[in-house]
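Treating backbone geometry as a discrete language has practical consequences that deserve illustration. In the encoding step, the backbone of a single protein was reduced to a row of integers, each denoting a local shape. The amino acid sequence and the backbone structure tokens for this protein are reproduced below.
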Amino acid sequence: MNYDPSNPLIVQGDRSVLAEVDNARYTEARDALAPFAELEKSPEHIHTYRLTPLSLWNAAATGMSAEAMVEVLRRYSKFPLPSNLAADITDLVGRYGRVRLERSEENLRLTCSDHPLLEELVRQPKVRQYLGKRVDKESFHVDAAHRGVLKQALIAVGYPAEDLAGYTEGAALPLQLRSLASSGMPFQVRDYQRDAAEIFYAGGDVRGGSGVIVLPCGAGKTIVGIAAMALLQRSTLVLTTSITAVKQWHREILDKTDLGEDQVAEYTGETKEIAPVTLATYQILTHRPDKKEDFPHFKIFDQHDWGLIVYDEVHLLPAPVFRVTAQIQARRRLGLTATLIREDGRQEDVFSLIGPKKYDVPWRELETRGWIAEADCSEVRIALPEGLRMEYAVAEWRNKYRIASENPVKEEVVGRLLERYRGNRVLIIGQYLKQLRRLSKRFGLPLITGQTGSAEREDLYNRFRRGEVRHLVLSKVGNFAIDLPDANVLIQVSGTFGSRQEEAQRLGRILRPKPGGQCAHFYTLVTRDTRELDFAHHRQLFLTEQGYSYSIADGAELLAQNGTRATEEVAFEVAN
């Protein structure tokens, strides 16, 4: 093959890939690369991707072959591929599925037709402890109770198992999707939502029934879960992040299916009921009055014959729920998320215990089709006032980020943006309650935090939906599962260090399609020459991978446009 020096990629032998952002073919190369590579760095001109075992295995689980991956690299590479690369990719991709878990008459069985490989795995202490008696030279008995932990052990030694052992059917639950929602509005599952649900279901075959669906915020992951329920026709347990999310699932299920109120129950800190469809929060599952005791609410997994367990926002799955998930591998498991990134590095546990990625659509593709709003992202860089520069300079390393995040000049910029978007639906979101309370008081805006009662919280959300309240201040409770379709401006004043998934989730709050194709505006306020700027670049990685770019705005220029008080005036107030 003739290689073209004008191509955007430089592929290296250590499985890293450099991409020239300013290249004319960068966008198509990025979109072709993203399904099987992870973005590591994204400075202005050269982005660095890496082909990791997990990124390759997830791609393989969606049906992408090693040959297809190598072909993408060849097509966009400036130079001939390193001699080892095609073989490395083929070998790594080939590891997925070489070991299988299958159903046997007595119990489960681990099988591997590669006899030397099986002997090697048997000698791995992490694996051997979960194997039973040998059946023949290609298989071992496995206790059903070890199904999850064995899969964790196998992926840890580099050979992820393909789980073909099937599932407990669960209690029957006849339900139909409505063609008209209960609200009277027409309802139809979108093509990509239907495809995602059907790929998960796989016609009831053992190759379906466990896995993760990755869709952008605002693209209707809840509808995918409901469509999967309609395909399975089985009792379902939905686990999600908050009472707000539980209420949203409750509304959508009753609105989009023919299930009645008596068939859908909530299991939260407020009420603990069980029905054929039960909606619970991660918080209640992991709550225990005595830290020395086990988790009392894990009993919910045994209180009904579930045919499906849905893990909403699976990238936030708490560690204790991983443990119980390892014990319930006979139940079908559907993970829903906008990003498989976990800041705790437990992506492998999601792969082994929930299932591999089964469906993924690039954010920009759905934007082009009008299913999510076009988004304009801006990073507003703000100087630290003189009155705080010395405090920042001598602060302990762990305190520098907070000082930068709570930069009081950000309040001036927020005021300027609120004036610019006076008639719009604006969300202001941040990490630090003291900062958020100041903003709420200064601009006379409602504030929602973790301490806000659920009734008051729902009332404020409903008033925002009706347009009675146009501006809201939110703490981290606003990161997830808030259905505010008309919100079109988000101002991020502070965030959780370098959290890529939080950045993605916050942008997602304003990605619901807007009337007339209206653009959404995402502003992140960052203090220059501080740790906050470094973390901001890391936070933006996932969105950069999805094709979003941040325009850089100068905070001083933004303030000057409206004659807002100069930074020096704010500094004087801080100093005094």
